[in-house]
Amino acid sequence: MSVRNTTSSSDFTLLGLLVNSEAMGIVFTVIFAIFVVAIIANLVMIFLIQVDPQLHTPMYFLLSQLSIMDTLFICTTVPKLLMDMVSTEKTISFVACGIQIFLYLTMIGSEFFLLGLMAYDCYVAVCNPLRYPVLMNRKVCLLLAAGAWFGGSLDGFLLTPITMNVPYCGSRSINHFFCEIPAVLKLACSDTSLYETLMYICCVLMLLIPISIISTSYSLILLTVHRMRSTEGRKKAFTTCSSHLTVVSIFYGAAFYTYVLPQSFHTPEQDKVVSAFYTIVTPMLNPLIYSLRNKDVMGASRRIFTRCSSAQKVGTDRS
Fold first, then answer.
1. What is residue 194's three-state secondary structure?
2. How far apart are the C-alpha atoms of 115 and 134, rounded to whole Å?
3. pLDDT per residue as tens, the chain (319 positions)
């Protein structure tokens, strides 16, 4: 029996973030550092929200879901990218490519919906503060989070099977650092224009639904803030929503370029840069934006640190 040294004919080859780059070592170090910071920052955020009673509120429950999504999101693409940067064999199996597409679509779709629901949470907190505990009770929060996860997974279940059932022939080299649908479809040996149109409509709808919620929520918030006479009240409303608006602007800006802007405005190099931004950088920025600009999170960090220091001191005194 002969040993096969060649890759399977169904495997794809990922050309990577940079091709024939002399700066590969520096880029690897930067991406690895971002990956580590993103994982740690999101896990710390989840931990703080779980253990600190003052963060057991609807806003922070939704924020913990965002941190879970960001952790899974960055783990979908970056580990494979880092391995490919230090390996001569940059192949990905057909099944692994399908799994990556599904997880990527699920995470990005879930974040689309969750950011829209977080805008609704801001609206209720600012415009209906007295009814906030009723309108955003635990049952409602669980339903909202489940809805975001379901909406994202629905996108994955719809588009992944269609993409993987398209016939691919000839070149198996994907000009990208992960299996992103537009890059994969360029290898198809059949006409995919109908599918690309349907995918475009699906993505536009995926963006329009949460953007409509965000636009309506913030329009009502601005009207309410404009009517406020208290400077402290306006400051509190701004603090409540500013971090969310920053994250929304970053995430939706990149998504709009990738999925809404016509392909004639795209180049493979630009696509890689934008994809790297929202798959690698954004998962790191989200927890940092919410922690560094949020007194509650910083306060929780200090309380946990003080509690741990006190416990360690008591243990040392006893010994």
1. helix
2. 21
3. 333 444 456 789 998 877 556 778 888 999 999 999 999 999 999 999 999 888 899 989 999 999 999 999 999 999 999 999 888 888 999 999 999 999 999 999 999 999 999 999 989 988 888 899 999 999 999 999 999 999 999 989 999 999 999 888 878 899 889 998 888 998 998 888 888 888 888 888 888 889 899 999 989 988 888 787 777 767 766 766 777 888 888 888 877 777 677 666 677 778 888 888 888 988 998 888 877 667 778 787 788 877 777 766 665 656 5
Find all residues with CB under 8 Å of 26, minimum gap 6, and list them.
none
Instruction: For residue 169, count other CB atoms closer than 10 A to its CB.
Output: 9
Q: Which helix (H) or strand (E) holds 143?
A: helix 138-164
Please state the pTM of the whole predicted model.
0.87
- DSSP for 260-308 reads TS-GGG--HHHHHHHHHIIIIIHHHHHHHHHHHT-HHHHHHHHHHHHHH
* Polymer length of the chain: 319
